[in-house]
Amino acid sequence: MTAPLCRLCSAELRRTFVDLGMSPPCESYLAADQLDAGETFYPLHVRVCEQCLLVQLPVHVSAEDIFSDYAYFSSYSDSWVRHARDFVDLAQARLGLDRDSFVVEVASNDGYLLQHSVAKGIRSLGIEPAANVAEAAVARGVPTEVLFLGEETGRKVAEIHGRADLVVANNVFAHVPDIVDFARGLRALVAEDGHVTIEIPHLLRLIEGNEYDTIYHEHFSYLSLLTTQRVLAEAGLTVVDVQELSSHGGSLRTWSAPTERAGAPTGAVAKVLADEAAAGLDTVDGHAGFAERVSRARDDFVEFLVGERRAGRRVAAYGAPGKGNTLLNHCGVRGDLISFAVDRNPHKHGRFLPGTHIPISPVERLADERPDTIVVMPWNLRTEITHQLEYTREWGARLVVALPHLEVF
Ligand SMILES: [Zn+2]
Q1: How far is the CA of 276 from the centre of ligand 1 (A)?
Q2: CA–CA distance, 179 with 143 (Å, rounded to integer)
Q3: Radius of gyration (C-alpha) of the chain in whole angstroms
Q4: Whole-angstrom distance, CA of residue 326 vs CA of residue 22
Q5: Cα 5 to ligand 1 centroid, rounded to whole Å
Q6: How far is the CA of 13 from the centre of ligand 1 (A)?
Q7: Given this model, what pLDDT does residue 66 score?
């Protein structure tokens, strides 16, 4: 078998970062009439490139399939809209954006972010591949081009609209299959004295927090600041500053500029690079050890669930987020170990988790059936959810998280 090739430097990918086995795409929830049909599973085998250190998952599901009719509207999340508004305020102050400025956002979704720059009178343009989502943006007054960004499309947009003082790519960089072509698209869009800002989940936090449930098929690259710099350098962009954010379990926001005019980076860049080096992320061997910790977390979780079953205790899951599916499929958990899941999203009710076929019900089912044990799937929202589930203590329910390590509380 030939090894897949690195999407940054084209070297053969021979080194495993973590192999989570086979899993269905994590957002492919099933209807009842699909349960007896076949289901497609794809490998979740993450590699680290020995040449450039980019941690990556080969593309199994095409970007067109994932993004063309995307069901996720960012504006449904209040905290996300707030995050976007704060970002626009910060960018305006930092770069001195005014009515003569031009801002482009890539993967602009339903205009959740650019609505704030439009409101400030700053000329704004969204680029969004999903036509149905772009329509929602246009309806709220955010001009949007429906396309995938690459070098060629970036040039076309710049010819029509001019080049931007600020190009924003928040939480899309890790999700594009051809990351170098995408970065070149960013370079084509930005003015010579402009800036590109990118938000990415930070590989360092993923490793430290054992956040392996953030690995799924649509998440192609797992980036450090070091590898982000390398990708951007291929496109003629240099990172000049970085901020560490708490979103998505720990993210980086990088600020870059065209290399010819970038100047010296801030001390924050050196600091994050030093943190990464201290964790070993500047060498291939420094990436070892994660797979073993993931296996241990799985062993503990499965052992716990089997123990609950043997003791005659019934287990339910709270929350049916896409990322929970990586965990459940990797652990081989089925309906015999977790009877049902509940979720607040009505679109998921009556459907089944991909691969594991665990049924999803409204939250009220907890009070009706009083399970003995409740696994909190979005473990990063543990404090908030523990408050919401206070009433389950009435019948003595125990709450559990599987990550960063198994904990009953
Ligand atoms: Zn490489």
Answers
A1: 18
A2: 25
A3: 22
A4: 9
A5: 8
A6: 8
A7: 57
- Distance (Å, whole) CA 287 – CA 291: 9
What's residue 72's pLDDT? 59
Q: Ligand 1 centre from 130 Cα, in Å?
A: 30
- Each residue's pLDDT tens digit, 177-217: 999 999 999 999 999 999 999 999 999 999 999 999 999 99
Quote the pTM value: 0.92
Domain end marker among 270, 286, 302: 286
User: At 322, which CATH number?
Assistant: 3.40.50.720
Residue 335 shares a structural domain with residue 220:
no
Cα–ligand 1 centroid distance for 15 (angstroms): 11
87 shares its domain with 173: yes
pLDDT at 79: 74
Predicted pLDDT of residue 61 = 73
Regions of the chain where pLDDT drops below 50: 68-70
Q: How far is the CA of 238 from the centre of ligand 1 (A)?
A: 18
Q: Are residues 152 and 276 in the same domain?
A: yes
Q: Residue 49 Cα, ligand 1 centroid: separation in angstroms? A: 5
Alpha-carbon gap, residue 316 to 367, rounded angstroms: 11
Cα–Cα distance between 261 and 31 in angstroms, integer?
54
Over the stretch 263-287, which tens digit does the pLDDT of each residue have?
A: 999 999 999 999 999 999 999 999 9
Predicted local confidence at residue 351, as pLDDT: 95
- 250 CA → ligand 1 middle, Å: 24
**Could you tell me the distance, in angstroms and rounded to a whole number, from the CA of residue 2 to the centre of ligand 1?**
16
279 with 394, same domain? no
What's the rounded Cα separation, in Å, for the pair 18 and 16?
A: 6
| Domain around 378 | 290-408
CA of 249 to the centre of ligand 1 (A): 25
DSSP 119-172: HTT-EEEEE-S-HHHHHHHHHTT--EE-S---HHHHHHHHHHH--EEEEEEES-
User: What is the whole-number distance in angstroms between the Cα of residue 61 and the centre of ligand 1?
Assistant: 21
